[in-house]
């Protein structure tokens, strides 16, 4: 496989739109799969995504749009998936075309619910994609800041380091830098956990805990993250690298973070259901919390923050009581 070949963006949300902007800064054209034909027509008329990052203008002559996922796959060599993790299965159920000879890049910072599987494992097990043909994108990289062309950094990971080294120029321009490594599993789990921790940070913010406490919270969260990823995937890594700690920080602190926003609403007294209804976008940490709690039943890592968020979201326990108890475990 000569990488990258023809690149397809799979998804129509804000992160997919940001990735399309990035790829078109280095490539002549892209394929772009969006589920809804009416959105594609509107996009062509307006010259921008009608629903997400609407300020980002596109030359639609450089985009081949698809509402048929199988045709998009057939016409592409590298597929960048950027759909919310809870909906990935639903999208892939329509796939009748083999993915075995495609290079898959997951830009999904989530986990497959029910199966409790990492995205890369799901592609490998259910779609027989060789692990050396699956990569992930991680790091502190909000779509909204890509839209504004603010300097950002990503990490590309693949078990075959030469493949991400080859493809890395696709994701490099004047406002985006990148690095690469082999820690696919560690980066994926860290990306799920940082969403959970961002919900907790938001709950504390909504309850009027201050910056002093948030600093202590993040210190404990990164330690909990390190303990878990070291337990499940003993690869040598530096948890202070931006793909782990940096992504946690931006997700826990940024006004663009939907997980923090979701948590803040709960901290202010919203029910989980009401907060979900008022959110315009998916807070993936809600699903990630349950998945990670169930996965950790196998590994039995001490994870008081994960347990606290689970108790609030799924056991409907009082945030005031749960967070007060959690603070007693911090140092």
UniProtKB/TrEMBL annotation:
The active site is at 194 (proton acceptor). Substrate binds at residues 109, 258-259. Residues 183-323 form the Glycerol-3-phosphate dehydrogenase NAD-dependent C-terminal domain. Signal peptide: none annotated. Its EC number is 1.1.1.94. One of its GO terms (biological process) is carbohydrate metabolic process. Pfam families: NAD_Gly3P_dh_C, NAD_Gly3P_dh_N. Belongs to the NAD-dependent glycerol-3-phosphate dehydrogenase family. This is Glycerol-3-phosphate dehydrogenase. The lineage of its organism: Bacteria, Pseudomonadati, Bacteroidota, Bacteroidia, Bacteroidales.
